[in-house]
Amino acid sequence: MKRKRLTREESRDQTRERLLEAARAMFMKKGFVATSVEDIAETAGYTRGAFYSNFDSKSELLIELLRRERDDLQASFQSIMEEGGTRQQMEARAVEYYSQLPLEDDFFPLWVEAKLLASRDARFRVRFNAFRNEKLEWVAAYIKSFSERAGTPLPLPPETLALGLVSLCEGMQFFRMTDPQTVTDEVSKTVLAGFFARLLLT
Fold it and tell me: What angle do the packed helices 87-104 and 158-178 form, to 10 degrees?
């Protein structure tokens, strides 16, 4: 069977996807700083020129990887809302999903890399903080919407809860990543589910 010839746009999209996949693998293996543009291009099977035809820098590519992970999270949160059901069913799904986040988020090391880069690079810090604020805004919107649908009053403003819950989740992910013998999967789930339930479901 004759292979379909890719359009220019399809070829560009394919190149971009391969570069993103290669970058993610290399960042996870070597770290952001130790990974060069050449490493990414070579792993993807392209040249340095192909990289710069798609991305201005490694940091731009890192933001794109994090953006995709955030979009996946948004879709998952939205599905919880759209499933509907009784208050108890919605609460159970929300608690289960939130408490499972650290166990399934293999992107977390990339978030750590991005935070370290933001602490050292003022230009990247501006972009990263804007991106992070977008995440906090949609988490706050989700919390508010969930509260309204479940008929549960919030003990604090949704923006405050969003910052607290995201910080707690990231903190548990860090402990679990660096000390998995102490912070086991079960411990992580218990802590997150307990705080989530106490803050949003009382």
Answer: 40
Check if the beta carbon of residue 191 is closer than 8 Å to that of residue 123: no
The token pair at 96 is 């289960």
Residue reference for tokens 């919107």: 141
Structure confidence by residue, pLDDT tens digits, 41-68: 999 999 999 999 999 999 999 999 998 8
Q: d(Cα 158, Cα 136) in Å, to the nearest integer?
A: 10
What are the chain's domains?
A: 1-55 (1.10.10.60), 58-201 (1.10.357.10)
Distance CA 39, CA 45 (A): 10
For residue 148, what pLDDT is reported? Answer: 84
Two tokens, residue 157: 């403003």
